[in-house]
């Protein structure tokens, strides 16, 4: 016998139509139709009502010789057993509902018409609804959520470009990657606006030890590229600059008409006057970051 047909047999045994039976077990008319058609399975609360009506709930799912009704002396114990199932089922349903609400919330957040979609699948089992909603989220709203997430991050952080050029605090290094942006560093807006007054900053890696211990080989430096006028160089401050194809990071200081490049580590790179015919000021170093070993 088709087990789903047993729900029809049980209803007829009570002399009820489908609507009356649905009201009796406290479910929607369409839900009870699903039980009789075999497209859905009743939850613990429905089984508890059926047990209270005298039915042996095992009969609905057993292909064997389980009796349709419980013996009067066994009814109380049977109801207790089904009540425990209903309680556990209620907890599981609550967890599934909470998960589905979370998924729906994400869809609402992404601007999707959730209710119309849920109407299409509302007769499916809860787990199926969750899966369908989740797939819809992945398929139709992932890019939108990512875009929204990026906007949120942009409000909290300013992404500063990192250029492929490696500044040398040794003898100099070639500009290998031109102006290619190879990544970004995130800084808090309030801090960055206080430090980078021009609003035009960039991050560079450093190679060499001529500025040791302030700047070490492998460090990254934040450069305010708005401070790029040689006439406004502040004596003793650290700058990034180029001489022809070489780019460096040194302290700069005017001595009369000559601009001098000054190293902190004289053993690696002595101080010297800069050839202004091939000089270009990139900007002033305003922050140094390095790993701790």
Low-confidence stretches: 171-177
N- to C-terminal distance:
74 Å
* Integer count of domains: 2
Could you state the order of secondary-structure elements as H and E?
A: HHHHHHHEEEHEEEEEEE
Shape verdict: rod-shaped
| Overall average residue pLDDT | 76
Name its key features.
293 residues; alpha+beta; Umud Fragment, subunit A; ten-stranded mixed sheet; 10 strands; 23% strand; rod-shaped
Question: Would you mind describing this structure in some detail?
Answer:
Strand 6 and strand 7 form a beta hairpin. This protein has helices spanning 5-13, 18-25, 29-37, 44-52, 75-109, 114-121, 126-156, 189-195; strands at 158-168, 173-174, 181-187, 201-207, 220-224, 238-243, 246-255, 258-262, 272-273, 279-289. Helix 1 crosses helix 3 (29-37), helix 4 runs antiparallel to helix 5 (75-109) and helix 5 (75-109) runs parallel beside helix 7 (126-156). The protein has two domains: 5-148, no CATH class; 158-289, Umud Fragment, subunit A. Helices cover 40% and strands 23% of the residues.
């Amino acid at each position: 016998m088709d087990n789903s047909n047993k729900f029809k047999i049980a209803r007829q045994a009570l002399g009820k139509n489908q609507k009356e039976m649905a009201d009796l077990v406290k479910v929607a008319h369409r839900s009870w139709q699903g039980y009789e058609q075999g497209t859905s399975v009743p939850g613990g609360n429905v089984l508890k009502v059926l047990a209270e009506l005298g039915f042996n709930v095992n009969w609905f799912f057993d292909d064997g010789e389980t009796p349709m009704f419980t013996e009067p002396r066994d009814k109380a114990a049977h109801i207790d057993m089904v009540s425990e199932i209903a309680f556990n089922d209620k907890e599981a349903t609550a967890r599934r509902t909470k998960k589905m609400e979370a998924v729906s919330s994400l869809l609402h957040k992404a601007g999707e018409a959730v209710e119309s979609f849920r109407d299409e699948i509302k007769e499916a089992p809860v787990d199926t609804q969750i899966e369908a909603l989740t797939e819809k989220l992945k398929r139709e709203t992932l890019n939108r959520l990512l875009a929204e997430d990026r906007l949120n991050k942009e409000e909290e952080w300013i992404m500063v470009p990192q250029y492929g050029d490696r500044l040398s605090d040794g003898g100099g290094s070639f500009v290998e990657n031109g102006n290619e942006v190879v990544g970004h560093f995130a800084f808090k807006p309030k801090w960055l606006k206080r430090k980078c007054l021009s609003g035009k900053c960039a991050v560079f890696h450093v190679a060499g030890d001529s500025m040791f211990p302030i700047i070490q080989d492998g460090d990254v430096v934040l450069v305010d590229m708005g401070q790029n006028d040689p006439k406004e160089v502040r004596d003793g401050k650290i700058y990034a600059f180029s001489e022809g194809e070489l780019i460096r990071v040194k302290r700069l200081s005017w001595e009369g008409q000559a601009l001098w490049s000054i190293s902190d580590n004289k053993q690696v790179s002595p101080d010297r006057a800069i050839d202004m015919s091939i000089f270009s000021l990139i900007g002033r170093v305003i922050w140094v970051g390095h790993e701790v070993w």
